[in-house]
Amino acid sequence: VEDLTTSHEAALLEMENNHTVAIAILQDDHHHKVQELMSTHELEKKELEENFEKLRLSLQDQVDTLTFQSQSLRDRARRFEEALRKNTEEQLEIALAPYQHLEEDMKSLKQVLEMKNQQIHQQEKKIIELEKLAEKNIILEEKIQVLQQQNEDLKARIDQNTVVTRQLSEENANLQEYVEKETQEKKRLSRTNEELLWKLQTGDPTSPVKLSPTSPVYRGSSSGPSSPARVSTTPR
């Protein structure tokens, strides 16, 4: 029992020592952290104080500047009021000077607007006329196309008629040539007939005889297209 008691007391003593050491370590660590926090806090406080002082000085400068500007504006306003009181009429004349010819300017502007309106009206009329002309041009173009088609048809017909006319001319020339040949042949036969008649009447085929105008042979020969006045009885 004594051994157990001794062991227990020794264990308790060791635990107390360990606890004391742990508490000392924790206290020391806590002290260091507190010191660090205090140092950081002091630095931040000092920095804030410096920034605050700078800001205060800056604001003070701005306040001073604004105060000076305000005082300057007050002085200028006071001088301006004094000048206005002294030279009210002169200042009014100067202020109203740009508006002295306002009525004349308005009249001129009105005239310009009327001229512009007239020009716009004329332009609208021209546009309407141009639209009408455009419509007429479209109709004319359609008519021109129809006329061109008709012209082409007429050209084709003229070409056909030209071919037919050429053929008819050739046929007419051939016919005239044929008629001339027939006429010549008829004349030759007529002369031959006259010679034969004279030979039959005179009984002398070698002597030329002049026909009487009342002779039936003469009358018969004169009915030909080109009977001669004298007929040679010389045989051909």
Automatic annotation (TrEMBL):
GO terms for molecular function: microtubule binding. The keyword Coiled coil applies. The keyword Membrane does not apply. Residues 198-236 are annotated as: Disordered. Residues 215-236 have a biased composition (Low complexity). Keywords: Coiled coil. GO terms for cellular component: cytoplasm; nucleus. PANTHER family: MICROTUBULE-ASSOCIATED TUMOR SUPPRESSOR CANDIDATE 2 (PTHR24200:SF14), TOUCAN, ISOFORM A (PTHR24200). This is Microtubule-associated tumor suppressor candidate 2. It comes from Neovison vison (American mink). The lineage of its organism: Eukaryota, Metazoa, Chordata, Craniata, Vertebrata.
